[in-house]
Design a protein that fits this description.
Blueprint: E1 3-7, H1 10-14, H2 17-26, H3 36-42, E2 49-57, E3 60-72, E4 75-80, H4 99-108, E5 113-120, E6 132-136, E7 140-144, H5 149-154, H6 158-174, E8 178-182, H7 188-205, H8 215-227, E9 233-240, E10 243-253, E11 256-264, H9 273-287, E12 292-296, H10 301-304, E13 309-311, E14 313-318, H11 322-330, H12 332-335
Parallel strand pairs: 4-5, 11-12
Antiparallel strand pairs: 1-2, 2-3, 3-4, 5-14, 6-14, 7-12, 7-13, 8-9, 9-10, 10-11
Helix pairs in contact: 3-8, 7-8
């Protein structure tokens, strides 16, 4: 696999920024999870035990494999960077896995357990590691944007179409004409703060703790959007007249738009804003040339109203260490707490 360098500190990683970004540009890397900005946003704590593998050929950077090691239950757990960040927004594939890559990891990053989320079904057939355990995850729900918007909306159930039309009429009657805007790069912090506020109010009304109560979780998104090239994300704002009603942050990976953060004014919950927002996003995404829209994981009922396709996803757990393997078989959850 060519000459290899392994970066083990955030400070050292900063020296590779130019070559990493040049590599990403030359190879037209379409995955947000392979950008330098994503890696640095994940590394909020400089004490994180990173293992960034840089593969060279004749002095030219050819591939980047961002990993980290965490100590869990006394074992060294190797995982893609962001896979174990502690937030549910990062556990997705970074690059195509091969046996050659896993062999490289064993040589360069000794581990007791390899934990890697979100494998596709067909990828299970190319990996021949010993002591592999496959854990089923929630299916990924995807809406194809290849048909015309009229056909996508026409596939909805009669009651769903009627409810959607009625909700939009009610919003425009009470709050003003609906519109979808994108947050400009220089204004992301202001809108992120309002998104976090919407989210906190919604969870407080349910006597639940918002994920964004933790400063580190908020800082991740501030840092990510401050440095990420704007083409890699869409930060949508749903407005009724001049009133901000809801937000949706989405990531671009190739021609797929991945829906991430959703937040809305909880005092307006009777309008079911998520459906109206999604309709406008589908129209805009198709206009921009996206071929599909992914809800990612999760089984919230409103997703199924849009007749998405369902694709099985898996976590890979490879455990070469005998003692770790015994612990995992006795109590899998204990290993990852």
């Amino acid at each position: 696999m060519g000459n290899v360098s392994v970066v083990t500190s955030v400070r050292d990683l900063e020296h590779f920024r130019d070559s990493w970004e040049y590599w990403a540009q030359e190879n037209r890397t379409d995955s947000i999870y392979l950008t330098y900005s994503w890696a640095m946003a994940c590394l909020l704590n400089p004490k994180r035990h990173i293992r960034i593998i840089l593969q060279y050929d004749k002095g030219t950077l050819k591939a980047v494999y961002p990993f980290e090691i965490q100590k869990k239950a006394g074992f060294r757990v190797l995982q893609p960077l962001g896979n174990g960040f502690g937030h549910r927004f990062a556990s997705f594939p970074l690059f195509y896995p091969t046996d050659a890559l896993f062999s490289l990891l064993r040589r360069q990053c000794p581990y007791d357990i390899l934990y890697w989320n979100y494998f596709y079904t067909e990828e299970k057939n190319i990996i021949s590691l010993p002591h592999i355990y496959w854990k089923p995850l929630s299916d990924e729900l995807v809406i194809s944007l290849n048909p015309p918007v009229s056909e996508i909306l026409g596939s909805l159930s009669p009651s769903m179409k009627e409810n959607l039309a009625r909700r939009i009429r009610n919003i425009e009657r009470d709050l003003g004409a609906l519109s979808l805007e994108q947050v400009r790069p220089g204004e992301t912090d202001t809108h992120l703060n309002r998104l976090f506020k919407f989210n906190a109010e919604r969870f407080a009304a349910r006597n639940q703790r918002s994920y964004f109560i933790d400063e580190e979780n908020r800082r991740f998104f501030f840092r990510l959007l401050a440095s990420l090239p704007p083409d890699f994300y869409r930060f949508y704002v749903l407005k009724g007249g001049e009133n901000i009603l809801a937000y949706r942050l989405a990531y671009r990976t190739g021609r797929q738009l991945q829906l991430r953060l959703l937040a809305y004014d909880y005092s307006l919950k009777k309008y079911s804003l998520s459906h109206s927002l999604l309709k406008l996003i589908i129209e805009k995404a198709r206009e921009e040339g996206f071929s599909s829209l992914s809800f990612m994981s999760g089984h919230e009922p409103f997703k199924y109203s849009w007749n998405p396709d369902s694709f099985p996803r898996y976590s890979l757990v490879a455990i070469p260490a005998f003692r770790a393997r015994i612990r995992y078989m006795i109590n899998p959850r204990k290993v990852f707490e």
